[in-house]
Amino acid sequence: MRCLDPAGGEDLWRFTAVRDAVLSSVAVSDGYAVFGSRDGACYALDAATGALRWRTEVGAPLLSSPAVAAGCVLFGADDGKFTCLRLRDGARMWSVDTSDDVIDFITDARILSSPAVRDGRVVFGSSNGHVYCLDREAR
Question: Edge-to-edge strands of the sheet including 131-135?
């Protein structure tokens, strides 16, 4: 993970402790730079320095970009679970398993789409053929 100076393109900082590829965008909010990795973890770095603030193991590759809203980090994983972590420390607040919603001819529930947040709700799609709209705060 790299943070580049927009003026000249030089590295401002680098974070190299990720154990697999990062395939998504980084969400930056409240001084945190948050991203998921194929290594099955969500990471939060200090946006100014690149220092690790926390790392939370999720157990499945994270291939879509996270969203940050109201102190929550929201993301879907390759195993069909959609999770909310607390931004300040990475503690799991809630998780929803979409893998029970598979359609007969679709065999998995991978969440590859990035979530959208609006008016206290989070919306995301799943490869199981469904679009979900959840209350961001209560699970």
Answer: 116-118, 121-125, 131-135
pLDDT tens across 97-123, in order? 888 766 655 567 788 889 999 988 999
Give backbone dihedrals phi and psi of 89, rounded to 5 degrees, phi first. -140, 0
Please write the tens of the pLDDT for every residue from 66-93.
999 999 999 999 998 999 999 999 999 9
* Superfamily the domain 2-135 falls into: YVTN repeat-like/Quinoprotein amine dehydrogenase (2.130.10.10)
From the list 32, 41, 92, the residue with the least C-alpha distance to 63 is 41
- Tally Cβ neighbours within 10 Å of residue 58: 22
Among 95, 2, 94, 77, CA closest to 41? 77
From start to end of the chain, where are the E strands? 2-4, 11-14, 27-29, 32-36, 41-46, 52-57, 67-69, 72-76, 81-86, 92-97, 116-118, 121-125, 131-135
Separation between Cα atoms, residue 10 and residue 105, nearest integer Å: 49
For residue 80, the tally of other CB atoms under 10 A from its CB is 21
